[in-house]
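question for whoever is on the cluster today: can someone run the full assembly for these? two chains, 168 residues total. i dont have access anymore since they changed the login thing
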Amino acid sequence: MDWTSTIGYLAASLTTLSFLPQAFKVITTQNTQGISGLMYVMFVTGLVIWLVYGLLIGDAAVSMANFLTLVFALPILVMKYRKG
Amino acid sequence: MDWTSTIGYLAASLTTLSFLPQAFKVITTQNTQGISGLMYVMFVTGLVIWLVYGLLIGDAAVSMANFLTLVFALPILVMKYRKG
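^ ran it for u. tokens below:
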């Protein structure tokens, strides 16, 4: 793998995995104060559309990265609307 | 522009613009409770690397989308570490 691809994968890993500590925090503390519900409505909707786009263009990296981010971001959205 | 590209731009617009209501909320309420600082450290670092990647591969869409997301996400990170 060349350097440019390595940089791309590093970027994708960081932005995708960044939602893991937020999901963990929201689930363990049950505290969603300060979190914008509108952000997660837009973000989760965007991820679903990214996933559709990845499938349409047949790009496994786009589909997988967005599916994984969706797995982390969806519980944040659910908790936000449960806890307010 | 074909349908597939339209779907891609819609996805990119949603995930990028989703950080705008979060930045607005954090700045206006000064409340960062519930927000994961680690999430924003990882996310902002990832965006900077995405920006570098976009410049390396000469892709204006990747560079621009990530630069814009950075503009919205950076104030959230700064506020989180100011307000705790």
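summary bc i know u wont read the tokens: The radius of gyration of chain A is 14 Å. Chain A touches chain B at residues 4, 7-8, 10-19, 21-22, 24-26, 29, 31-36, 38-43, 45-47, 49-50, 52-53, 56-57 (CB under 8 Å).
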